[in-house]
Every structure is written in C-alpha cells, then in structure tokens.
Amino acid sequence: MNGTELVQFSAATIVALLVIFYGGTLLISARIGKKDENADGYMTAGNKVGFGVSAASMTATWIWASSLYASATSGYTYGISGPIHYGLWGALMILFIYPFGKRIRAVAPKAHTLAEVMFARHGRSSQLMLAGSNLVGSLISLMSNFIAGGVLISLISPFGFAQGVVFIAAGVLLYTLWSGFRASVLTDFVQVVAMLGAVVVIIPAVFFITGFPDAFDGGSGNLTDQQGDFFSSDAFLNQGAPYIAAVLAYAIGNQTIAQRLFAVREDLIKPTFVTATIGYGATVIGVGMFGVLALYLGIDPMDGDVNNIVPQMVASFLPTALVVVFFVMIIGALSSTADSDLSALSSIVMADIYGQNIAGGTRNADPKRMLFIGRATMVVATAAAVAFASMRLSILDLLVFVGALWGALVFPVIASFYWHKVTNKAFTTSVLVALAAFLPVRFGWFPMDGVLAWTVDIASVVGVGVIAGLMAFGFFGLRAARVIGVVAAVVVAPFALGSVHDYAVLSASLVAYAVSTVVCWAMSVNSDEDFDFEVIAQRVGDFDVAADDATPETDPDSPNAPASAKTPASEADASATTPEKENR
C-alpha cells in the first residue's frame, strides 16, 4: 500500500460485522436484564461493582474512539511529543480522581450524580448548573463518538458518513436502553478486552509494515523544527498545557466518571483508578503514534480532515484481516463511551431534573416513572447527537473546549466537599463570573493587547497555581497544596507574563480556574456557613425504597427537612480525611 489506497469492505461485510458486534453486546445486556428494572440499579448498579468490571469499565470509558483519533491528530499536528502530551496527562488525571473520589463517596455513599450531591450541599441553582454542564458535555461526547464511527465506516465501505453515524447510534442505543448503567458497565468489560487485544496486534503491525524505524530516518524532512523537537514549546503550549487543565476538569465534572465512582465498591476506588490510568496511557499514546508516523511519511489526511488519520493509516497499510480487527477495536472504543454518555444523560435527567426538582426528592419520586424518563432521555439524546454529528466538527477541538469550560466548576465543586464555609451564592456566582471571563478570552471577542492582555496573563499565572495546588491537595493536604500552588505560580510567571495571552485555548482555561477560585474563596472565607457534611448522606439516598422507609424531604430549604439538615454542627465532619481536617 502507498498510503492512499484503502482497504474496502462490501456493504454486506460491514453490516455483518455490526450485527455480530452489537448483537453480541445485546445478548450480554439481555442476560442481565430484569423483568422489573430497578431505578437505582439503572443508574449506579447498586453501588457495589467489583474490581475487574469497574476497572475495565473505567478504562473503556476513558479510552473512547474520539481520544484515539484526537491523540493521532495531536501527533500529526505537533510531532512526536503530541501523543505524549495527550495520553500522559490524560492518564495522570485518572489517577488524580481517586483521592477526591474517596472523599466524595465518604460524604455521599448512595449518590447517583455529582449534581445531586450539590443539591444536598447547596441547593437548586448549584445542582442545575452542574447538571446542565454535564448534559452539554455528555451530548458533545456522544456526538464526537458518533462522528468517529461515521468517519470509519465511510472510509472503508460504500456507506456514507451519515449512514455510518446512524448505524453506530442505533447499535449503542439498542443494548443500553433497557438496563442502562448495568448494561454499560458489563459490556465495557468485554469491549475493553477486545480493544486492548486489538491494540497489541495493530500498533506493532502498522509500524512494521511501514518500515519503522527507517520511515523516521527518511521522513524527518517532512517535519518543522517544532514538530521534530521532543520538548517542543509549541506542542506544550497548544496541546499539553491546555489538556492538563481540561482533563482535570473532566475528572471532576464529568458524570460518566462520577457514575463509576458511585458504582464501584468503596474499598476498590484506588485500585480501579490506578489500573485505568495504566491502561489508558499505554493505549492512547500508542495509537497517537499513528499520527506521528503519518507526518513522517508525508501522508495528507483524506478530504483535509484530520479525524481521518487513524482509519486512513490502518486501511492504507494493513491487510484486510487486521483492518477487521481495527474496526472492532474502534467500534468497541466508541461504543463503550457512547453507552456511558447515554447512561450519564439518563441519570442526570432521572435524579436531578425529575427526582429532585419535579418529584421533590427521594420520598416522592416514582421509580417506574424514573425508568421511563431515563429511557426516553436515551432516545432523545441519541437523536440529537446524530443530528449534531452531521456538522463534523474537530474532535480534538471539542474535547479541549468542553474540558476548559468545565474548569470554571472545578474549585467550587472540590471546595464544596471539604470546606464547610462555601455557600450556594459563592458557588453559583463564581461559576457564572468564570464563564463570563472564559468565553471572550477563548473566542477572541476583544483585541488581546494592553491592559487586557496583562490582566489575562496575571489571571493565567494564578490559574497555574490553582491547578497545581488542587492536584497536590488531593494527595498531600492543604498545607502542601498552598506551598506547591504558590511555587508553581512563581516559577511560570516570568515565562507567562507578556506572552500566554497569545495562546487562547490555554489562557482561557487558566482564566476560568483562576476567576472561579478567587471569587468562590472571597465570597466564602468570611461567611457564617458551617455546613454539616453528615446530612448529605441523609438527603441523598436510594429511590427504590418503600414509602415508609424513604429518606425525608431532600430539599434543604423545605419545611419538611429533618432538623439535622437545618442545624449546623461545627465538628460534624470530624471523621473527614486529612485534607479536609486541615482546611477547617
């Protein structure tokens, strides 16, 4: 193959492969189906998923087709350091989830969504803000996975892009609709085994067939100086640094991750996320090297669309049998995340929109109606994602944008689980102000010069300190976080001041972190709030309970709320983890 002739499958072959793959996942889903489905099981599988299934599900959810395509795009755009920046920081962010996750589960052991916990912690506005951001984020994620599937099918078959999107959407919806999260997490196990097995075969095969390492020696002239530099500042400032900020926001704000956090057995949180860290990093960096290889070989993406790099490389150089293996790998990767997005979207609508805001809490919610609403949500979300996928936006741009947007939520959410002084007003105001600052910087609504440029640079330096401090806080506590945050800001200041505003994606992300942190802290530090974290577990519980055993009214502002929900207790969280004790 010369890099332009693609392996082509007949329509019948593609249909057969899709029927085998989605038929198999449907059979797995049917075997765990229940005649009378449980609303809590539909959302979190009873909060007791074991290590093997939970680790596989977390790995499969984080390794989505979009991340594989985006890693290759990064390699093609920025050279050899591109996939490293994409895969390494993404892997480390999975690792950073678990210390915060342990605290979240300790505070809300029976929760279904983070937004539901924010309702118990603050009230309706904070809940809907987090739920709304997750609805948008999960819909974009779903859309990008459908795009990945449509691109692949259109490249290697007679079917068009739109037809490919419809095939993938129908297949994922088919096996996820009835059992929800339980179907998602169990099929993830099978999908990740197939996906990782395919990676072990495909990556070495592509490099061998293309003549590695001779291809790297002979193709170096196709690279710019920055693309050929492993320590490229261009790659770090445009890819690495924005992604560090974006994936931390994904880790804290993404419902697909929170759902697995609430589903896994509490004592298995650490090994689950450590295992997923290793699996994600190795796979995504490896596939990302396809983009680097295409760059060295001088291959132009078909139709000028960088989303085509991975399927184009595989279909150009591999024999038919291995293209089939690759097809299964990509379909498994995108399906494992797409079903997670559907489960996340249904849980948010079930628990946050209907359960808390329409029904009025766990005591009043009808589990059967919740199930109907959850399934209807999946159908509507699938239709919307198919419609939006026709726009064929850049997957890498979508991922970075959503992650940066969520950066406005990171500090207020984390602080709400540790600091008893954070108020609903502080949470809501800080997020809105941060978004108001993020959007004009990200999209260049104003000329970036003079006082405005320096303001953005200063805020960006503060944002660096916030991100470094938050990462340190989860593992080492508040004192270490303060020191590391200050040191990080001081170290980057000479390099950032006067220049970082030229990088819109990076500076916008950092501004969102900085503004939300400063505003939330300023509005909370002198507040009279003394929240009792123990009441969260009282306010957030199972929906499938008998009326006489149901949790009392969950709205903290309701006159029917329990007395403990209204009476602050200064030391009620005495058993909290070390970082939280220091914070007090």
From TrEMBL:
Coiled coil: none annotated. Keywords: Cell membrane, Ion transport, Membrane, Sodium, Sodium transport, Symport, Transmembrane, Transmembrane helix, Transport. The chain crosses the membrane at residues 6-28, 49-72, 84-101, 128-153, 159-177, 189-210, 273-297, 309-334, 372-392, 398-419, 426-445, 451-473, 480-497. Pfam families: SSF. Its main location: membrane. It comes from the Bacteria. One of its GO terms (molecular function) is symporter activity. One of its GO terms (cellular component) is plasma membrane. It is a multi-pass membrane protein. It catalyses: L-proline(in) + Na(+)(in) = L-proline(out) + Na(+)(out). One of its GO terms (biological process) is sodium ion transport. The keyword Transport applies. Residues 547-584 are annotated as: Disordered. Residues 547-556 have a biased composition (Acidic residues). It is found in: Cell membrane. PANTHER family: SODIUM/PROLINE SYMPORTER-RELATED, SODIUM_PROLINE SYMPORTER. Belongs to the sodium:solute symporter (SSF) (TC 2.A.21) family. This is Sodium:solute symporter family protein. The lineage of its organism: Bacteria, Bacillati, Actinomycetota, Actinomycetes, Mycobacteriales.
